């Protein structure tokens, strides 16, 4: 019985540790001429908290499959001011180019 408890505890600890590890964004750039960058995404209304407009070539980060995309709005890192926000997924490209 003790072995079963220890095995279950080890499995639970392993599962929580793996889920807690952050996924760093892949380096990318803005491939649209300009792209609005928002601070958050509200599922009822869409992107909210406009921050700024990013230009073609701005260094950003996004990891497909790891960072959320809601209705075409992708969670992204703007490496200029080093903050997170949402940008249209079609404006992200040039992965691993810098």
Highlighted features:
98 residues, globular, alpha+beta, 1 helix, 8 strands, two-stranded antiparallel sheet, six-stranded antiparallel beta sheet
Task: Please render the helix and strand layout as text.
Elements: H1 2-20, E1 27-30, E2 34-42, E3 46-55, E4 59-61, E5 69-70, E6 73-78, E7 83-88, E8 92-93
Antiparallel strand pairs: 1-4, 1-8, 2-3, 4-6, 5-6, 6-7
Signal peptide: 1-20
Keywords: Signal
What does this protein structure show overall?
It is a single chain. Strands 1, 4, 5, 6, 7 and 8 form a six-stranded antiparallel sheet that branches. This protein has a two-stranded antiparallel ribbon with strand order 2-3. Helix content is 19%, strand content 43%. It has one helix spanning 2-20; strands at residues 27-30, 34-42, 46-55, 59-61, 69-70, 73-78, 83-88, 92-93. By secondary structure, the chain is of the alpha+beta class. It is globular and about 35 Å long. Keywords: Signal. Residues 1-20 form the signal peptide.
